[in-house]
Design brief:
250 residues, 10 helices, mainly alpha, single chain
Length: 250
């Protein structure tokens, strides 16, 4: 039993339960916080990150995001051999978290006519569709996320034992403490998130989008597959650029 993968699954599920939950609370009809606005959503996502990292950090490093995992590996701070397993666990956790959100808000999905709002609980979409600039938004947002994480954490990492090699190092969101990363996600949402909904995480968008496609949501409409590649490719590119700059500077 791989405890790291279990906690990546659990942590990402918690991330989506609270993150998707705050979106559902704000945009689905009939909830007590309907119409609470963008600030509520951004703060809710920040707390979602804080809670998820608090749980998963001590066990897996709490990447909770394929872009973070790939960025850490590209910066030689995480073993490439572990990357596929982490990504699969993150995707599965995101899917499961989205299913939980659907179950909690099922009656509110039923009375919401807006198909875009229903999809918005699960995944992101651009305020103004423009492929190049939507992609740039995701690249810049994720670059900020990963590069600032690197600089909060610093170049030093903790090993299980000093004599062990790099693949046994644990570094991730959990290694720098949950609170600064939660604040960082709130800042990205408030400052940069209004263009595309700041996915900045392929699992956060694709896992729930698949859930939207598969779940029996009343009159749900299209799952937005034409846009779906942007919240995957953009964050990965942003993370790789952050790792490149980090490697140059260190």
């Amino acid at each position: 039993m791989n405890i790291e993968l279990i906690y990546e699954f659990i942590g990402t599920a918690i991330l989506i339960l609270f993150g998707g939950g705050v979106v559902a609370n704000v945009i689905l009809k009939g909830t007590k916080s309907f119409g609470a606005g963008w600030l509520t959503i951004t703060i809710g996502w920040g707390f979602a990150v804080f809670l998820a990292v608090t749980v998963a950090g001590p066990h897996s490093g709490a990447h909770l995001n394929p872009a973070v995992t790939i960025g850490l590996a590209a910066a030689n701070l995480f073993a490439w051999a572990k990357v596929p397993g982490f990504i699969i666990a993150q995707m599965a956790g995101a899917f499961f978290g989205a299913v939980l959100v659907f179950l909690v808000f099922k009656t509110h999905f039923d009375i919401t006519e807006d198909k875009g709002a229903k999809l918005g609980v699960f995944s992101t979409s651009p305020a103004i569709p423009n492929t190049p600039f939507n992609l740039i938004s995701e690249i810049v947002g994720t670059f900020a996320l990963v590069f600032i994480i690197f600089n909060i954490a610093g170049p030093s990492v903790m090993a299980v034992a000093p004599e062990l090699a790099a693949p046994d190092f644990k570094i991730g969101l959990g290694s720098i403490g949950a609170l600064p990363v939660g604040i960082l996600v709130i800042a990205i949402g408030i400052s940069l998130g209004g263009t595309t909904g700041y996915a900045i995480n392929p699992a956060r968008d694709l896992g729930p989008r698949i859930a939207h496609f598969l779940l029996p949501i009343k009159e749900k409409g299209d799952s937005g597959w034409g846009y779906s590649w942007i919240p995957v490719v953009g964050p990965i590119c942003g993370a790789l650029l952050a790792a490149l700059l980090f490697n140059i500077l260190t």
